[in-house]
Amino acid sequence: MNAIPFLNGSRLFLRPLQENDAESNYLNWFNDAEVCKQNNHYRYPYLYQDALQYIQYAQKTKESLILAIVTLEDHVHIGNISLQDIHFINRTADFAIVLGEKKYWNKGYASEAAKLIIAHGFQELNLNRISCGTYHTNVGMQRLAESLGFIKEGVRRQAAYKQNQYIDVIEYGILRNEWLIRNAAYVPEGERNNE
């Protein structure tokens, strides 16, 4: 079953996760030490039932927006992206991304997908702040956050444990008005004039 794209980019689109994703290479991402080196996965085996349960959660929840990253050219599901822990009173959310298909690493797909979901968060979900945290060893995610305009706000010392060591977590955040100023191409013209 082909899902209808939810957010469209120039080389990819974001769509809801669907149950048949659990039967694809998606399952292998979270059992791959290299894919999970810089995230909180790969602590226990990731099974088909785990993937299916997560996908079903993603389809129902309004507390997170969890989408598949799919290439436009060949419709390959290459990763997942999300706005998590959405708080509609504080108007905040946490940004997360995993690119599971290694042949698409370092080619700008993460940046394009991130711009789509962050723009949606600010413009359609009416968020005021989006944050993300990453291991101090995850230079790629730090570069992505900074290229998107996220500001380094602090460090949670030894907040994670991975690969037999405690790891600092760097916290980033971006406010809606900061995003609108930096990303005019992702902002409808009428909204640009209101800021």
From TrEMBL:
GO terms for molecular function: acyltransferase activity, transferring groups other than amino-acyl groups. Residues 12-177 form the N-acetyltransferase domain. It holds the Pfam family Acetyltransf_3. This is Acetyltransferase. It comes from Paenibacillus abyssi.
